[in-house]
Every structure is written in C-alpha cells, then in structure tokens.
Input
Amino acid sequence: MAVTLTDKAVQRVANFLEKRGKGVGLRLGVRTSGCSGMAYKLEFVDEINADDVVFENSGVKVIVDAKSLPYLEGMELDYAREGLNEGFKFNNPNVKDQCGCGESFTV
Output
C-alpha cells in the first residue's frame, strides 16, 4: 500500500514548496499527543533520511519515516475548504477512533 495525495493536496503542497523556494517534499508522520493518543505531523523536507520511505504523487514527494509508516499505510491526504476553514484532511483507513476536536486518533 501507499500514502497518496488528492489532486488538491498535490497542488497545495507544490504551491507551498514553490513559495518556500526549497525543499524536496512533505514529511508526514505521527507523534504521541492529544486525548486519543496520536496526532499527525506535517513538515517540509530539505533532505531525505536513509530510513525514510518516499511516495510520489504527480511530482510531489511524500516522505514517511519508518516508525510512522504502519500507522499511515493506505492513507490519503486531501486539502479542502469548508466555509471559512481550509486545511489538510487525513483519510486514514487505520483510524479506529478519534477525539471530538479531530486533533488526535487511535489505531
């Protein structure tokens, strides 16, 4: 399985990287946090580590560290605007439950 991006997410990440002026892609990972146990983390990557797994969607690289991969396997990253709110949406088939605020999840 892979980690994929929708067309909207690809466009948004490509725009961020272009404005930033450097970077090889977007790092997607998980960390211990929140009331449900885990939270997503996103950051731009300037260098790919030896233990990283790289997925490419329409020319945009998504870099996942080996420890996070089991929690993100099969996930789709989307970008959506809903009313006045906009941001990345995590469509993760591994999630069993998430907190009411949507900031953390369990697998």
Remarks:
- The chain has a mean pLDDT of 87.
- The first strand starts at residue 4 and ends at 5.
- The CA atoms of residues 17 and 23 lie 6 Å apart.
